[in-house]
Amino acid sequence: MLSPGMAQGAAIAVENVSKRFGDGRAALASVSLAIQAGEFVAVVGPSGSGKSTLLRLINRLADPSTGTVRIGGIDAASLDPVALRRRIGYVFQEVGLFPHMTVAENIAITPRLLGWDKVRMAARVDELLGLVRLDAGYRTRLPHQLSGGERQRVGVARALAAGPDTVLMDEPFAALDPLTRDALGQDYRALHDKLGLTTLMITHDMVEALGLADRIAVMLDGAMVAEGAPAAMIDHAHPYVHELMQAPRSIARRVDGLLAGKER
Amino acid sequence: MDGRFADALSRLPDYLGNHVLVSVTALALGLGLSFPLALAALTRPALRTLLLAGTSIVQTVPGLALLALFYPLLLGLAAFSERVLGLGFSALGFLPAVLALALYSMLPVVRNTITGILGVDAAARQAAIGVGMTEGQALRMVELPLAMPVIMAGVRTAAVWVIGTATLSTPIGQTSLGNYIFAGLQTQNWVFVLFGCVAAAVLALLVDQLLALIERGYAVRSRPRMAAGAAGLALTLVAALLPNLLSAGGGYVIGAKSFSEQYILAALMQDRLRASGLAAGRRDGLGSAVIVDALAAGDIDAHVDYTGTIWANQLKRTDVPPRGEVLKEVGRWLKEQRGIVMLGGLGFENAYALAMKRDRAEKLGIRSIADLAPYASGLSVAADFEFFSRPEWKAVREAYGLSFGRERQMQAEFMYPAAAAGEVDVIAAYTSDGRIAEYDLVVLEDPKQAIPPYDAILLVSPKRANDQAFLAALRPLIGALDVETMREANRRASTGATPETVARWLEEKIGRQRQGTELSDP
What we know:
Distance between the termini of chain A: 47 Å
CATH topology of the largest domain in chain B: MetI-like fold
CATH architecture of the largest domain in chain B: Orthogonal Bundle
Radius of gyration of chain B: 27 Å
Number of strands of chain B: 10
Strand content of chain B: 5-15%
Order of helices and strands of chain A: HEEEHEEHEHHHHEHEHEEHH
CATH superfamily of the domain at 1-87 and 201-264 in chain A: P-loop containing nucleotide triphosphate hydrolases
Helix content of chain A: 40-55%
Largest interface: A-B, 19 and 17 residues
Strand content of chain A: 15-25%
CATH superfamily of the largest domain in chain B: MetI-like
Oligomer: heterodimer
Number of helices of chain B: 21
């Protein structure tokens, strides 16, 4: 299902990976996925489908039971996990920020771990606040003083702080209200294009995936059941994909109808 | 101002300084042990269980018992180290107090550190690893700061416990604010007791609040507040320790057990030494067993003991030869076995004696212990904390076939009024105690001589055995105190006079006697 040539040139390549938990339950069963440099891939699936585990394998928060994960062609198992995590941005769901650190300290955490000097870190924080469209007044605030949307903007800025070319996002916008979620998603997509990032985003929301990703992979019960461009999802034969597409479809129909009525 | 209050105040620099020193050292040691252990236990569930169980068990041991247990332990250790390394150390006072208190302080710190760190939101920990922190960095930069309020609460609890419990280090020879409480209890000086309690409470509260200030400053990231708290602690420490450092005491140390006669005699010896130009400090409130070991080890230089006590507790003898023979045998044994010099008897006996309220004894027709035996099963007997476990109690019971209905232990000070009020029928009184007369009690005769003689003897440590100036200063006390004089001295102390005041009265009386003999000598 995956041509060897494609996996070889990929920024991230997951090759026939299986993962079993301690209790013998399979979280992933022979999953493969290749992400090209500059691509924005969304993995969609219900909770328990194994999509978070897949994400965690890439920066070695977990290691596969069998199979290989390659980062830039190199077997991740041969890389130092700490160094690897410092060069991959990670946006966490909900409480990703350190509650005892200011916005500036949160953003500068990975640069600090990499040993940057203070002046460089301060300049980088200003630059990133600009990128995620927060003004400099946010620097000294603590996470609990921010709204959900502002917190996740800081989360994105932190992921980008050390200038990674790859960003992993674990349901980054799930806890936000629809308007904020949409605005933040679009802002991030613009940053992805502007900075030439490679992004892998986990979500359970097909509408969000359709709106942001270049390519979508659908997971169910630890297996990859569909993979392709957003357009390929529309008439996909797999019943679960079909089910996932029902909501976007009915929304589209309804909006189309409303628009048509108005135009008449 | 009440004289007793002024007296208490004058001792504050010494007591408070020592109290702070022992508390701070114990707390520093406790924290130094607790943090690494707690951190090591985070990833080792078996160690965690063991550590929490161990520290909890320590916590259930009463503070006084824990402190007392460290003394024999260290004594053995000191002897061992002296033999093996040629390096002895004092097993009395500071060291056992610090070790016991440090152990005592560990539970809240260990428990709060472990629960605080394990209680940190898993998401925060995961984020720490996710952004590329090592395990150590995650602990230092995320988990410890987030657990800090819980950890600091543990530290504050430990500080308050240690400062409070340090008052109990007095009986093992560590001067502390407990000296007020123990001495006050013995001499019915309630101003002292209250003063000690309040001083310890104020110190504990102050330290707690300064730690709270640091904790709060840390939480709101206010450096000035943290600095103010730390400066406050440092200031407290310096203020408490400075007077002691400035008046580097040194000199001789006089020991005293924990009752007023001992306080008076220690004060008297101190006065004698001062009059000869020798500086002398005091170790008050030492236990009967501790004090002889302390003297042999040179932790104290001199104290007054009683032949019967040494006879029973040290020689483990149960036979009762005549008074003079016991005195000679005790002196010989002390010299041979412990290297202790018996300078001589002071001239009076402070024996245990069974005593009853006079009208009650007359009604039952009891004049001697033998007369008491038939009634004993229906009577209750009270004694101090020591008497019932001493061999002569066993000897008395066997000699007369005594079996009391009820045995009660109480502070000696409460024994006499309890007998007078009829709350107990018989008490193990001290023959030199002024309260026998004060409460109109009768001392029962001991026709079978089951209770050994208790001559007060002045003992000198092996290391002062040839210190002529020291011996010469104390020698005038030998044979200088008859039992009437001592009773009167004890009576004065029990009615509110401080041991120092009574000691001065004794000193004058002895001075007059000496002049009298000199005058009558041709």
